[in-house]
Amino acid sequence: VAAGLGDDAATLEVPPGEQLVVSSDCSVEDVHFRRAWFSGHEIGYRAAMAALSDLAAMGASPLGITLVLAFPPAQRHEIEAVADGIAAAARETRCRILGGDLSRAAALFCSVTVLGSAPHPVRRAGARVGDALFVTGTLGAPGAALRALNAGDAPSAGQRARFARPQARLREGRWAAAHGASAMIDISDGLVSDAAHLAAAGGVGLTIDLDRLPVVQGVTAAAAAGSGEEYELLFAAASDLATGDFEREVALSLTRIGEVAAAAPGGRVTFVQAGRRVDLAPGHDHFSP
Amino acid sequence: VAAGLGDDAATLEVPPGEQLVVSSDCSVEDVHFRRAWFSGHEIGYRAAMAALSDLAAMGASPLGITLVLAFPPAQRHEIEAVADGIAAAARETRCRILGGDLSRAAALFCSVTVLGSAPHPVRRAGARVGDALFVTGTLGAPGAALRALNAGDAPSAGQRARFARPQARLREGRWAAAHGASAMIDISDGLVSDAAHLAAAGGVGLTIDLDRLPVVQGVTAAAAAGSGEEYELLFAAASDLATGDFEREVALSLTRIGEVAAAAPGGRVTFVQAGRRVDLAPGHDHFSP
Does the pLDDT of residue A287 top 50, yes or no? Predict the structure, then answer.
């Protein structure tokens, strides 16, 4: 997967007429994850997919990854598993490892920069009054896994897999971009927080119906809306969007969960359930700074 | 200087017909530097210039920077100085801060990704037998500063400035690329090590005359060749290169220090002084992993 590692920098062709899209993320031991929860391979895979999810949220196609790995010298063997996990994520999303840097450090530290391109990147701002709001996949599994792990319990295999091996919704993001999505974001901080980001960026008021939220079994809609690490996409698009085409073409559910109700400087999100307004606080992520 | 920080990723136009050039570097407390040596501003400035130097070595023009900063919560105030130092380096080299990530961590950790572009990036491989070897600027000051600091002495102001505020030789690298440089590298590991990298990449034997080495006062040619953190450029080009034009146009010395003597699979570097062959070991950098 590696390419161009012999030079001072790597080179890349950006497809003519497309814009470069770039994002850098870090993953730090005891801040973003606990070593006891994941294998080295999963730590690397998650870090890369979390960064790639930012490309998905722009409707971009990945081109390459650079990585910085720092770790205690005694863990040199395990860092190979982390690098293998990053390489696996790169292979699955068909992008190249372009290079990077290694260092020793007191704790495991992983920084991933992803490069991609899109003809028309979709931003957080741009949601139009009258658009409908859509979410990919189902919510709630990573949050349930995190709650179980924090309580010292074992999460179910399905919930653990969603938490340990998230999938960047790259095809889904490109589909949304190609079908007129006016604004998009990934749900890495949780639906409550990220819907607020989308509303604030666009200066709009969003209404989200919790009864429509696609949630995994055993998780309430409110819990699923509050928890992060989801890496599903939330986007605004015309209300007659062909969700059936989406589901056929990318083999994932797409659910209409609300609408862009009004202009609202500064942004506003209203959650309703059984026809009544519900107040939801943003989820608290124990592993964010 | 910051742009596009509100979206999941930043977007960038790569000039039509040019290739994207990208490199990621990290700078870790007690590995790459000691806190006692530098201000927070200098730590950030150095980290950014070291990464930008990789673009210089490809003959590329910088477009943007992403950064990841991790630090102990109690040092939040100082991290602003680090970020200011990175922003100063970005301003001086006319590139944008595109975004990044912040985290807490046990020690200060800084990862910088630089993006640039070039019509024809210059690689480490490509030196042609018969080419001459050129080096920009003067060598030896950062190594002398590091030796003084390690010995508990104060370096001279000039040596300290070269160590604490390195300059990425971006104009110099572009000049070399535009004037037919066949292979180029920055001297971040020291001339002995980086000449070996250039020789190995190109499968050539280099001869370098230590008597021609441009060194600062008070440092021997052997010491200057062995020490790293220089961030000058070493490149191969036609032996009739107009070094006078270079010096007029970029206001820095350019010195012919040797030649590409022969093909040599695996690479070979021969140092001569006073007409005799001299054996030089690669410099030992106390702060590399």
Answer: no
Tell me the HSE value of A16 on the side-chain side, using a 13 A CA sphere: 2
Q: Hey, is the C-beta of A58 within 8 angstroms of any chain B C-beta?
A: yes
Phi, psi of B53 (to 5 degrees): -60, -30
Q: A283 in helix, strand or coil?
A: coil
Interface test with A, best of B7, B21, B76, B197 (most A CBs within 10 A): B7
Pull the structure tokens for residue B224.
């200057």
User: A196-233 burial, b for 16+ CB within 10 Å, e for fewer?
Assistant: bbbbbbbebbbbbbbeebbbbeebebbbbbbbbbbbbb
pLDDT one-digit tens code per residue, B51-91? 999 999 999 999 999 999 999 988 888 889 999 999 999 99
- Listed in sequence order, the residues at least 6 apart from B27 whose beta carbon sits closer than 8 Å to its beta carbon are B33, B43, B46, B47, B50, B109, B110, B111, B112
Tokens of residue B22, six digits: 């990208």
What are the pLDDT digits (tens) for A28-74? 888 888 888 999 999 999 999 999 999 999 999 999 999 999 999 88
A67 touches chain B (CB under 8 A): yes
Q: Cβ of B68 and A121 within 8 Å?
A: no
Cβ–Cβ < 8 Å for A27, B42: no
Percent of chain A scoring above 70 in pLDDT: 95
In whole angstroms, give the CA distance from residue B21 to residue B118: 7
ipTM: 0.89
Q: Residue B171 belongs to what H/E stretch?
A: helix B170-178
Q: Which residues of chain B have pLDDT under 50?
A: 1-4, 284-289
Cα–Cα distance, B120 to B59 (Å, whole number): 8
Are the C-beta atoms of residues A211 and A274 closer than 8 Å to each other? yes
Nearest CA in chain B to A18: B13
Dihedral sign (CA A147, A151, A156, A158)? positive
Residue B143 CB-half CA count within 13 A: 29
User: In which order are the strands placed within the sheet that holds B276-278?
Assistant: B183-186, B233-237, B132-136, B254-263, B204-209, B268-273, B276-278
Per-residue pLDDT, averaged over A81-86, amounts to 94
**Is the four-CA dihedral A147, A149, A154, A160 of positive or negative sign?**
positive
Place of tokens 């490149």: B235
* Per-residue pLDDT, A204: 98
pLDDT at B287 (0 to 100)? 45
Inter-helix orientation angle A141-150/A157-164, to 10°: 100
CA end-to-end distance (rounded Å), chain B: 32
B70 has which bridge partners? B103, B109
Exposed, middle or buried by CB within 10 Å (0-12, 13-18, 19+), for A7? buried
Residue A172, SS3?
Answer: helix
Spatial distance between the Cα atoms of B232 and B263, rounded to a whole number of angstroms: 25
Q: Which amino acid is at B130?
A: G
Which chain B residues are Cβ-neighbours of A183 within 8 angstroms? none
How many Å lie between the alpha carbon of B28 and the closest alpha carbon of chain A? 7
